[in-house]
Amino acid sequence: MGTKVRLVFYARSAEDADAGRKAAFAVMKRVDDLMSDYKPDSELSRLSAAAGKGPQKVSQELFDVLQSSLLTAEQSAGAFDITVGPLVRLWRRSRKERKLPSPEELAQAKALIGYRRLRLDAAARTAQLDTPGMILDLGGIAKGYACDRALAALRELGISSALVDTGGGMALGEPPPGKPGWRIGMLGDDSKILELSRCGVSTSGDIEQFVEIDGVRYSHIIDPATGLGLTNQAMATVIAKDGLTSDALDTPICILGAGRGLKMAVDNGAEAWTQWIENKRRKRAQTPGFSRYVVPAED
User: Thinking of the domain 163-295, which architecture would CATH place it in?
Assistant: First the structure.
């Protein structure tokens, strides 16, 4: 998944802690082996390589994430689209070379994008990419799913007070002993501390992942409609029922903007905060219930 993983949990003994660590990392490794687009032998990469070749049998884990991804794609009118892989690869090269893709390259990549060309059959547990050259990218949802699975693995061992962190996203179990919740600093707003438990929280934005080309700052977040990285320095933090949901929602909020994006969060039972640059001024907005998770910083 191209990220570091941090585990924080409370166990009854050193032996329990070691077992929990091994179980959580084993689950994370399995998700990475299934869903990484960096690994040519991952199940996701094999599915992309079979684009245009009919239905392909997939694991239950991958099927579940693909199904959730299509639901989010429908809800966001395509702002979240896991078939964006061809554009992601173009922009990885652009960040490395500091050179924009050509109009022809963008057009060719965009012609391969469209979540409705990913077809799932629940009864057969198959997935089909209709057009040769299509490439799936689960970077906007797989980390959240992996956090959820790791948290569940710890819970099965009797470790309920736990936090699984992949950098931009977390899944949180019961609070630390004697505490009302896990205290999490918000990326993009150092003044805000969140106190959370039994939920997922994630942040997407261009704090670190961006490239400046010809004086324009392009985010790693790509708008499938334009094929371009966002230029308004948008970022969003989402608190949801689990890591998969929060991870899936933060990117489309950045793309859709505060109005439609925050409504989408509320429609999914989530709370969210977003900021962006408009007319050279930083603007912020949040859902009505977001503030109840914000607590004063400790002295």
Answer: Roll (3.10)
